[in-house]
């Protein structure tokens, strides 16, 4: 596998040891040979398969060693703290007994445990005493199921952003530097290195389960990136001193047509929105109106709404060019990132697949940013998150982000044809979005014979499509029903089809994933946001050295490559 070579290459660190291994991880049970694994959108019911392949779950992970135990954790720019829940436990470790709970996303899920302190290893980095949460319980979906046992936060560590640091300082005093974030402790260990991290979340094709990427601290992936990064606009953190990696998004274009942006966050300038750059979010979450504005411009895309579930079905081979504007520069999103495959849907006994939107809509998702741009967008850029440069007076400058576009829209268009068709060659045929929506809404159904069924025969049936294994019949709803009736619950949307429709079209069971399974990892921070400045680390007044470059190109991109160099506008 290409991945192994790449992984080894990334493990070969520099003299300064500033690289750490990075891995993209699909849900367990997914395999390289199954094109349907990985970025899958499930129309299946709440079956076992659902629990495993609960889709949209590509996470970018790395291995760290806490208290001598190696743990695979998510790299998360959406939060700050480190927590782990390794299956075999951590053994005996120094447990402060301070109970803590970290909540993510809309606050409905998270992890809880106690704060521990232990030696920490990551690549060639070694921290003698590092605080973390030893979780006893996690309600974040699809982490442990995917053999991922924790989160490594890469955001700011001032008191409001880091509950761990806040608690440690409260109990052990300001001198307890072991409560600071992993990154902060690494920065402090290397005072002459710049305080930034840089990431390349690689897409090596359509649906690979694992792929490389790079993650570096204080240096760039490649020497020739430095110049390009210098040429990229500085995107200051907005608001200054905020808790998160949020910046202003100036505009969105869909095939050159501008989309109107309107922020719900105070102080955001007109026509812009505040965007969170969150590597822990496999997709993207925007207000519903914005999702509609984007996908309504994708030829052939049709929305499907039922109660709280609202998604778009689009042609798998869509070549629509969606571009995000930051700092006056347009950053194209690869059309492959606009949709993901569904699980097979059985229609008249024939399996079909469809493609579903990856920019998800949710209103009131957060009050301190408008949109969350997860890996759907971040795969398209080389991103540099700079915590602030040292000033000559020893103070620290304000944090900012720099992005290098990596998707060439023209090349991407061609890749859609080659890559998607290669992927789809091994899949059931695609059902045309309009036809599927017809089935889903019942508008394509034959006129239903009104309640002429015998009491014994169910007049309506919902079947959990389980991809080949047993289908589970669900008791028919009683009373009035339409040709299709929908029942939305925590597991998704179950759609029941009446008998005549059933006879005509065969069984279709549809369960749309609820938003709760498409989880962006954004730490919910309680307290007043945006008003705390990051403290200035005591840096040597001599400033910093230039980044250390590695003269070797390590990327083993495969035939789907084409991202070898930053694509600049
Ligand atoms: C990370 O840890 C897992 C489980 O121990 C292991 O299978 C995997 O190979 C490791 N990955 C790297 C890059 O070391
Ligand atoms: C555990 O860590 C705390 C904080 O660093 C320290 O005060 C204490 O001595 C440690 N206990 C042991 C047993 O190492
Ligand atoms: C996408 O596929 C459909 C159906 O196979 C075809 O009619 C259409 O031309 C394709 N569109 C593009 C942009 O290739
Ligand atoms: C949720 O968002 C909608 C649309 O932006 C807004 O009209 C509504 O007031 C919000 N509701 C709450 C409870 O904030």
Automatic annotation (TrEMBL):
Pfam families in alphabetical order: Asp
**Which residue ranges traverse the bilayer?**
505-532
InterPro entries assigned: Aspartic_peptidase_A1 (IPR001461), Aspartic_peptidase_AS (IPR001969), Pepsin-like_dom (IPR034164), PEPTIDASE_A1 (IPR033121), Peptidase_aspartic_dom_sf (IPR021109)
The stretch of residues making up the signal peptide is 1-17
Keyword hit for Glycosyltransferase: no
This protein's superkingdom? Eukaryota
Annotated region Disordered: where?
25-48, 445-478
Q: Which organism is it from?
A: Psilocybe cf. subviscida
- Could you tell me the keywords of this UniProt record? Aspartyl protease, Hydrolase, Membrane, Protease, Signal, Transmembrane, Transmembrane helix
Q: Where is the composition biased (Low complexity)?
A: 445-460
**GO function term, MF aspect, one:** aspartic-type endopeptidase activity
Q: Which residues form the Peptidase A1 domain?
A: 60-396
Entries under PANTHER family matching the protein: BETA-SITE APP-CLEAVING ENZYME, ISOFORM A-RELATED, PEPTIDASE A1 DOMAIN-CONTAINING PROTEIN
Q: Which PROSITE patterns match?
A: ASP_PROTEASE, PEPTIDASE_A1
- Name the chain's protein: Peptidase A1 domain-containing protein
- Similarity comment text for this entry: Belongs to the peptidase A1 family.
**What are the GO BP annotations of this UniProt entry?**
proteolysis
